Amino acid sequence: MISLAGRDILHSWSKFALTGLGLGLLIGVTFTMAGVYRGMVDDAKVLLNNSGADLWVVQKDTLGPYAESSSLHDDVYRGILGIPGVARAANVTYLTMQVRRAGADVRAMVVGFVPGEPGEPAFLIAGRRVTRSHYEAVADLTAGFALGDRIRIRRHDYTVVGLTRRTVSSGGDPMVFIPLKDAQEAQFLKDNDAIVSERARTAGNPALNRPGVPGLLDAIEASQTSNRNVNAVLVRVAVGHAPETVAEEIRRWKHVQAFTRAQMEDILIAKLIANAAKQIGMFLAILTIVSAAIVAFIIYTMTLGKIREIAVLKLIGTHNRTIATMILQQALGLGLIGFAVGKIAATLWGPAFPRYVLLEPWDAVIGFGIVMLVCVLASTLAIRAALAVDPAAAIGG
Amino acid sequence: MGLGAGIHLEGVSKRYGAGDTAVDALKDVNMSVAPGEVVGLIGPSGSGKTTLLKCLGAVIEPTRGRMTLGGEVIYDNGWQIDDRRVLRRDRIGFIFQAPYLIPFLDAIDNVALLPMLAGRPNAEARARARELLEALDVAHRAQAFPSELSGGEQQRVSIARALANRPPVILADEPTAPLDSERGLAVMRILHQLAGQYQTAIIVVTHDEKIIPTFKRIYAIRDGRTVEEAGEGRGLSA
Question: What is the pLDDT, as a whole number, of residue A137?
Fold first, then answer.
């Protein structure tokens, strides 16, 4: 027996191809939305991987340093180093801000780190590590940074001496790594006018400017223009120690919060990007419904266009099953074309998106199954219409 | 005429609706068509021709009477053959006013489709289709799609399709309507020739005055009743 659906598709291939193309672009958008979500999750994991830490120590009762702001004194790490099971501990700061490069603003996460300690970028794809105490930076390639670029952060210029790849914040912003001291200063550094104004205001305060206490005013002004805080302490656990046990010890003795890798992953994925994930989930659901409606409409219209031929087929003794199979196969054929176009389109336009779009093979397999299922469901309307056709309609009257 | 193969109707009636709104489309219709015979069925619009054709084609059920097609009783006062789909596929050939070929199948597969539906292997079905297309002088257009065929070629392909499963009965509904006189007569010559060749009983429903003289017997239907008339049986020589 010949394939009626196959013959129809071959005969009207241009119509099927164009319809499949349209459907495929819609499926491509759906895949891309799924890829954006996967990319967000991957960005979060990459962020944790790049930090090179087993534990994140942050301000008590906060979910810092990525999901909430956190502030710790920069000497807390010394005490942490003394806790059994801690191999290394280092201060870090994170600040998402606009940095300037070649006169243009680039949104970036500025990371302050201690060279050679957790928090430093694990590997470079070009250039060298930061070796000077000030004004050198390692930047992510994503934002178009190149070696030798000058980046302006607040009032200082930094020279890009090394490049990394896939070091981004959970928001997808490229990271710029600078020495910790510079980063601490960047977080609190004010412009000259603000400093002058603040000094005048302090000097005018009789409680802070006491003639009988020499040096008090200078000390207060010094404290106002310097910053001794960091956002977190990254801890590497010694071999043979369980991160959860070490975290518990830190919480107990240092009155700070300590998160393990699993907990931090949960914060980033289940809390930080939860709303974005729901948003994307809604989009995916709507796109799936729209795709199903389009397939149903196309198949239904195509079937109605063949109603006389279907009546003839039924009159000459074609089994209902054969007619239903023909319509179902056409719907599946359309889905197949749509899936192929969608997958290719998503693969081609994915890299052009500003955020990382991760197209997982397993998502494609699930997507294929959903497309086929949607096509099967969408074809039922057309099959019902076809089976309702009276073979008598082919005769006269 | 005996009750062997061919078409035999005894007291066939068909009523649509019930009560005050009931319409008797057929009233005690009696008809016999022998194998190899081509009979005309004429009558004005609304006389019951289409209803009779639908009853014969096993697409609607008469209200009463008895119908025999190809030696098999298909309806007998309320009893009806079980699988009307298989009956239509294997024992009745249909020719329509418009050819109604399947647009996405070429000529040979339009004809071969019926044997394939009946479970014949593709090669055998196509060989049978080619044989019929040759008999109807359209074998050279076997690979053409319906949209590439002329009206006459399409009608000949549809005749070949009607014969594809060697049915004992063919029902033709105004087969010459879309054709000019010459082509209409050519189609009638083909039907007469094939009826004799394959011993098929053929009923041709027509309004076409030009082809009415080609029938040796005619059934005229008026207000649901049939009257047998003698035809002229001329105009069939090529």
Answer: 95
Q: How far is A347 from chain B (nearest CA, A)?
A: 34
Across the interface, do A7 and B105 touch by the CB < 8 Å criterion? yes
Which residue reads 């004799």 in tokens? B196
Q: A331 phi and psi, to 5 degrees?
A: -65, -45
Rounded Cα–Cα distance for residues B100 and B144 (Å): 15
- Residue segments in chain A with a per-residue pLDDT below the cut of 70: 189, 396-397
Residue A116 to residue A113: CA distance in whole angstroms:
9
| Predicted ipTM beyond 0.90 | no
Per CB-CB distance under 8 Å, the chain A contacts of B104 are 4, 7-8, 10-12
Q: State the Cα–Cα distance between residues A391 and A348, nearest whole angstrom.
A: 48
A interface residues, B as partner, C-beta within 8 Å: 1-2, 4, 7-8, 10-12, 306, 308-309, 312-319, 322, 390-392, 394-397
Which amino acid, residue B73?
A: V
Q: Return phi, psi of residue B42, to 5°.
A: -120, 160
pLDDT digits (tens, 9 = 90+) for A250-270: 998 878 999 999 999 999 888
Whether B109 maps to a domain, the answer reads yes
Domain count, chain B: 1
**Residues sharing a CB contact under 8 Å with residue A48, sequence separation 6 or more, in sequence order:** A261, A264, A265, A268
Write down the number of H helices and E strands in chain B. 6, 11
Amino acid B7 reads: I
DSSP states along B144-183 = --GGGS-HHHHHHHHHHHHHTT--SEEEEESTTTTS-HHH
Phi, psi angle pair for A289, to nearest 5°:
-65, -45
Sign of CA dihedral A266, A272, A277, A279: positive
pLDDT number for residue B2: 39
- Phi first, then psi: what are they for B36, rounded to 5°? 85, 0
pLDDT tens-digit map of A164-192: 998 988 888 899 999 999 998 888 767 78
Report residue A268 as tokens. 């980033």
Range of the domain at B110: 7-230
Judged by CB atoms closer than 8 Å, whether chains meet at B104 and A4 is answered as yes
Residue the block writes with tokens 């050519």:
B186
- In this complex, the residue of B49, B100, B104 whose CB is nearest that of residue A12 is B104
B31 pLDDT higher than 80: yes
Q: Is the CB of A392 less than 8 angstroms away from the CB of B59?
A: yes
A319·B109 Cβ contact <8 A: no
Question: A368-386 in b/e burial notation, b at 16+ Cβ within 10 A?
Answer: bebbeebbeebbbbbbebb
CATH number at residue B87: 3.40.50.300
The reported pLDDT for the residue numbered B1 is 40
Residue with tokens 């009853």, as numbered in its chain:
B55
Mean pLDDT of all residues in chain B? 89
Site of tokens 């191809």: A17
| Model pLDDT for residues A125-135, shown as the tens digit of each residue | 999 999 988 99
